Amino acid sequence: MSTPTGTARHPQTDAMGPLRTILRIDGWSTAVFGAVMLAAAQPLSGPLGLPTAWSIPFGVAMLGGAAALGLIAGHPRIPVRYVAFVVAGNALSCVTLLALAFADVIPLTGLGVAFMLVGALVVAIYAGLEFAGLRRLGAR
Q: Between these two residues, 46 and 136, which has the higher pLDDT value?
């Protein structure tokens, strides 16, 4: 069977479409956010209370994570164990952001706490969507 563009499709690959899409969206949004954290580390420091000594490593880690997400999403057959690692990483990121928001480890402003809470919510949503995609693959 061929698609209109003439490329062959494998039924297992088609089943990965929704998961591949969410991995790509997660990857791109992580890349954009990581770039913003690096480029705007100094200007965001005051309003958020997030020291550049924290935002620079966050940004670098996010760019690395984005690259990994892109590589995983690009596999013809997405390895289940990689997606499980992504889900675990997003869940851990959620817990870490919540801890940073409330543990008084960083001198966050009110806006900085909100920033961390929104970040925790976003990665929790990605973890949930990717977990759902992983379960759908397991059900096939």
A: 46
pTM equals: 0.85
Q: Are 55 and 89 in contact (CB under 8 A)?
A: no
Beta bridge mates, 51: none
Report d(CA 32, CA 105) in Å as an integer. Answer: 26
CA atoms of 127 and 130, how far apart (whole Å): 5
Nearest Cα neighbor of 97 from 118, 128, 111, 127 is: 118
- Map residue 8 onto helix, strand or coil: strand
Q: Of 85, 75, 66, which Cα lies nearest the Cα of 16?
A: 75
pLDDT in tens, 3-45: 444 444 444 455 688 999 999 999 999 999 999 999 999 999 9
Structure tokens belonging to residue 52 = 């550049």
Note the Cα 48 to chain centre separation in Å: 21
